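[SOLVED] Need 3D model of a two-part complex

Original post:
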Amino acid sequence: MVNLRPASLFLLQNQVEVYMNAAPNDMYRAISYDNGSTWNAFYKLRIKTNDALACAATGNARTRYYVYRRSDSKFSLLKRNEFGYDDGSSSIMGSGLFTSAPSMVCTPDGNNIFVFGTGNDKRFWWAISRNGGASWQLMWGPLGAGTFKSAPAAVVSDDGSVLAIFGLGMDNRVWYAQSSNGGNNWNVLFGPITSSTFTGPPAACISADGKKVMIVCRGTDKKFYYNDSSDKGLTWGNFHAIGEGVFLGAPSICCSWDRKYVHVFGVGNDKKMWRAIRDYAGSTQWQGWWQLNPGMSFLTD
Amino acid sequence: MATAYEHLSQQMETTLADFNSPGMLAVIVRKGGNETVASVRGVRKKDLSSSGNNKIHDNDRFCLGSTSKPVSGFMLSYLVQQLGSVFNFDKKIKDIFPELADPACQKHFNIRTDYLNATVAKMMTHTAYFPWAPTNSMDYTLDLAGLKETLDADYVAEYANLKALRQRRYNYMIASQQDAPVTTFTYNGGPILPVTMAERITGKAYEEMIKEYVFNPLGMDKAGVGRLATNGTPDGTWEHTYNKDTKIFSPATKNTLMVYNFHSHAPAGAVYFTYGDAIKFITEFFLKNGKTKKVVKDPLLTDILLPHANGFAKSGWIAGGSGDGAWISHDGDNGASYCRMTIYPNKGEGFIVCSNGSGWDGTYDSAGNGVSIGGRIINPVAKEINTMLVNWKTNF
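Solution:
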């Protein structure tokens, strides 16, 4: 069974990438060089996981980091050059076992890497590197006492100060934690975001300065819903649907390189990849949904 | 009495034998383009027979190495002519890439502010204080891509397209602004960043622009950018690296891979000409031959051939002399090919000599720089051509 949640990231000058398993252990990537207007075909990578991928890139686009869950439930970290080519080598991240796909963020300098996963105890556990994954300051430590049904979704501001984590709680609400000093202390750990309930892991993105945070989640009606925070993820409004599209799996979200737009990706009922985009500078109007590369299907098994 | 062609060819044969090098191209253009002598000698691929199909053909390509820089400079000069206020030699990096003036963007990309005011002219003349090559210039990726090409077709499909290539040049431009500026004159990638600026303005890749703006108007129908040959048959000239210990030239297989056509440094080193292309290109620089210029018109053409800073012209040529003795010239060495092109614009004479083998010969010059075997191969032929040009009426 493939986790039908894509992964996405932006790189400099209008590059956006979306990753998705087409079948078990069959990870593909499509690249856009014009902020999502046109897309290359999906090309196969060598990353072997049935689960959703976590990915992040340095600001200069020179290095991509990938974390994925192995078949033995451990996480592996890949560090790749500018094209993210996977030569099959990776490093296992300790002995921690996870029930979910990972979430990972890094600061643009590539030094600060935060990796999160849902442990066997349903709590979020995290790992911290301050030197680009060469060594780990923490691996693994529990993050609060909250328990979750889903994988985590994390964001970090460019300066590494604002750090926020989201997950689907046992009550199907989205719960979050928020720090203003890179996770040294937590302003919230954990609190619910409204009483709305959802069906899978949230996705999150953040502005460069950390002031604006957005989350997207799949509702019980299979639509995607978004919620905005304009105070570094401390307080939240209500959830709103992103159009009428319905999806088989959870969403992925990423900003554009200049943080002027946000892209949301999801696998539709037709097993195709779809994308919506919204101005991140003020408008709340979404455009989409548009299908990416109609020839590519993402199967459930 | 030997003809000029016979004399030139004999000199080339002697040189090839002296260095046991693979092949050579030489072209002499005189009388404003009305008289030409061209010869190709040697073999396409050194480890194959020296006869039959392996002999260098008349239309075989030779890589210009860094002599690609003034070719790119010529293309940029055309854009200056056509675009005026939008793109000119005084345009700064921050003018074309305004996002880089944003402190948040600078922080995100981890770039310095030292280079934001670098102009096209300064970059073309290597006086914008960029190092020889950026530390994070991703030079390695061409080798890596070549390796991956042999392993994974999907990887190549992602890599080998012009959109991805333009992105790599942008990445190079970002990486170029992460190192501290040098404090003394340092020869470097020259036109790569100005070409990236042109790519942003035109929305076209260098590989498209050079064809549309230079090669097509001049009828240089075999000129291009990238690999010279594709396989071991061989179907064209192979480049060769040099082993200083064994003194043997070896075919540079990686330079025949398809990814070599998608090379972020191409504006500074991956243009190729046949001898027919070289004749047309050289002739376009003759200022007094009465022929209508097809790419860059006067007075801009005259201006871009003048020494501007440190002996470099804004078009990337090294320039010197005056009157009929005024010259422009450039050497290029990519470690597997070597080229020298010299033009006397007022006199209406010029030449090009190329070798499909190069590399460090294991020695250093008086300035402490490694000596290129390619340069040593080219020198006697170029010297003889200059002698021929001086004594032409007497000898030929």
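Edit: The interface with chain B takes residues 11-13, 15, 29, 31, 33-34, 40-41, 43-46, 58-62, 81-83, 85, 108-109, 158-159, 208-209, 258 of chain A (CB under 8 Å).
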